[in-house]
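Subject: Sanity check before I submit

Could someone independently write out the structure tokens for this chain? I want to compare against mine line by line before I put it in a report. The sequence has 218 residues.
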Amino acid sequence: MVPWLALCAHMLWPVSCPVCGAVAELVCGPCLRSLFRPQPPRCLWCGELAPCKVHKDNPVRVRVGAVYQGVMKDLILMLKYARYEAIGFQIGEALGERLTRPEADALVPVPLHLRSPRRYNQAGAIAKGLGSVWDIEAWDVASWVEDVPSHAGMGAAKRLSLSSEAFAFNEDISGLRVAFVDDVCTTGATLSRLARAAQNHGAEVVGAFAAAHVPPAY
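---
Independent answer below. Compare away.
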């Protein structure tokens, strides 16, 4: 960009890419893609490295693009708490370019909690970006039916106690091949319970995707 145009753009939109410093850019496309280093897949049902020994007959994977740290963590926090919804679509696009497209009819984002003050679903924004690259519809059709607190402050044991009955679907998903999308995967419990709920409603679960994951503490 011509320097004086860059300066004007920065005055109108005072942000800069956290990787390369380019003004008037929340994050540059090439910089964002450079942050993704696909992680080893995990079993959707138990969260162990795939293939796990327990679910050999149901080998559905969670695939993640990056570790939840550094600039990637900062971008996701901006998406969730600083109202930069557009970052979600960009994250989804970059993630879709790094991961293999699933054979799915719909990408279903993890829904917002019932008491969330957010006006948009950050997982839905990522799903739309993924869908644009993979040519799969992002279908924000899931919802919570239990008033559970935000998982940000929930310990691992509490997360794992979630029931698949905590979720409902606003449209008929029976017979569809669905994959789930989230921003951050910690234990994988939410994705697992949501997937079980989808199976109970007659859908075929083909996978799950997250922008980043919190590495386990040993």
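---
OP: Matches mine. For the report I'm noting this point. The beta strands are 42-43, 61-67, 106-109, 137-138, 142-144, 167-169, 177-185, 204-213.
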